[in-house]
Amino acid sequence: MTAEPLPSPMPHEGDAEEGLRLTPELLSAVQDLGKASPEFRAALAKLLAEPPLEPGARLRLVGRARKVSVSMPEDLTAAVQQRVGRGEFSQYVTEAVARQLELDLLGELADLLEEEHGPVSETVLNEARRSWPDVS
Questions:
Q1: What are the Cα distances from residue 127, in Å, to 16, 42, 68, 89, 120?
Q2: pTM, two decimal places
Q3: What SS3 state is found at 82?
Q4: Is the residue at 110 inside a domain?
Q5: Number of Cβ within a 10 Å radius of residue 131
Q6: Rounded to whole angstroms, how far apart are CA atoms 84 and 58?
Q7: Is residue 8 part of a domain?
Q8: What is the mean pLDDT of each run of 10 residues along the chain (136 residues)?
Q9: Looking at the record's lineage, which domain of life comes first (predicted)?
Q10: Is 121 a domain residue?
Q11: Is residue 66 part of a domain?
């Protein structure tokens, strides 16, 4: 099963114009990913190949689905059912699991990069904070 973003109603200004600037430290870290396991590199490549979702965007899952049984606390299932309505529970849980897997992969990448290059310097962290002042 794969995930595709739902089409946006309108493109955002400047989306195509914005690029990613790689600092020398980040560029070096990316080049060193060749030392990572093939499974990790494949998972990272798949994650990076996906277009980023806009905040609040929902995924449309395509491919075969497999029915599974999951035990969850009653209050959690009730909260999900109240939020999404009838027939959307599986979609909601699937999206949550997909996001968690992305976070797990990012955590593994961060651990790998820190292991290979040490912790991010305070200078680089300050530069990032200046670049994205509204992110805490």
A1: 24, 30, 45, 41, 11
A2: 0.51
A3: helix
A4: yes
A5: 9
A6: 12
A7: no
A8: 45 41 57 68 68 62 82 94 89 91 92 90 90 78
A9: Bacteria
A10: yes
A11: no
